[in-house]
Amino acid sequence: MLKISDFARIGQVAMSALRYYDEIGLLQPAHVDQQTGYRFYELDQLSRLHRIMALKEVGLDLTQIVQILDQDISAETIQKMLRAKQVELRRRVQEEQERISHIETRLKSLEQGRRMPTYEVILKSVEPLTVVSTRDVVANLAQKAQYADDLLIFLRQQKVKPVGPVLYLYYEREYTRMDIDVEVAVPVERSSVGKLTEYRGERVALRDLPAEPLMVSTLYHGSPYLIGEAYHALGAWIEEYAYTITGVCRKVCLRREGDLDDYLIEIQFPVEKQTPEAPFSH
Fold first, then answer.
1. What is the rounded CA–CA span in Å between residue 15 and residue 40?
2. What homologous superfamily does CATH list for 122-273?
3. Domain 2-73 is in which class?
């Protein structure tokens, strides 16, 4: 048998980890000296240790590893656990990549000495709009964009031609960068849409976005990571003219491909007047 120190060296794991695995019953020593408390392991226990390390490396937690090694779990269940972990890790990578893009945008802005631009905020009416849409909670900006791309591909497969730019409708009552409750909507001609099939395991809806008699709006040109300044301009206008927001925010993606710094987005909020007059544009 091998002392714990030798077993740890051969197995390339810390002795503290082996002690912890013993405590939780994941990998118990073959023998413990009753007088000294020293742990001893047999060489053939290395195969179990290697399985533990391999499962840890793919991101499974110790509770899941105990289940896999000690319980009668089917290969199908293990595959589901690994696929779930794969989805989680891809989401983390996507989130970190988005953070990097956000940092790069901020650095570029600082290096260029960029000042906050002046935004023209207008008040207008919006006609009802027939859309094909689907709603989900998305993790971040990149996933939201992919969600829209997937819907456009789906419509192309259904031979449904969009008649306007993609819209995002946000149902969060307060701002959040992650886990965004968003509806992706694509304007269509109602007569061109037949019976829609399932999309991504969910249902797509053919519906009419309601007309809005008062919609405060501004155009934003630039990286979506700096769009907060346009929201700031809208908020200042709403406060100055004593309006209140009455519904969900809409973002109309007039240009959403190519260089991030060349994105063109119209931000819209339905509002109602609390006190007299503000400029109105049709």
1. 12
2. Regulatory factor, effector binding domain (3.20.80.10)
3. mainly alpha
The DSSP code sequence of 50-108 is: HHHHHHHHTT--HHHHHHHHHS---HHHHHHHHHHHHHHHHHHHHHHHHHHHHHHHHHH
- For residue 202, the SS3 value is strand
Please check whether the two domains, 2-73 and 122-273, share a CATH topology: no
The partner residues of 165 in beta bridges, in order of sequence, read none
pTM of the model: 0.60
How far apart CA 223 and CA 268 sit, in angstroms, is 18
Q: Domain ranges in the chain? A: 2-73, 122-273
- Each of the 282 residues of the chain gets a pLDDT tens digit; together they read 899 999 999 988 999 999 999 998 899 999 999 989 999 999 999 988 988 888 887 778 888 888 888 876 677 777 887 888 888 777 777 667 766 765 766 666 666 665 656 789 999 999 999 999 998 888 777 778 888 888 999 898 888 889 999 999 998 766 555 678 899 999 999 888 876 655 555 678 889 999 999 999 999 988 887 888 899 899 999 999 999 999 999 999 999 888 878 899 999 999 998 865 555 554
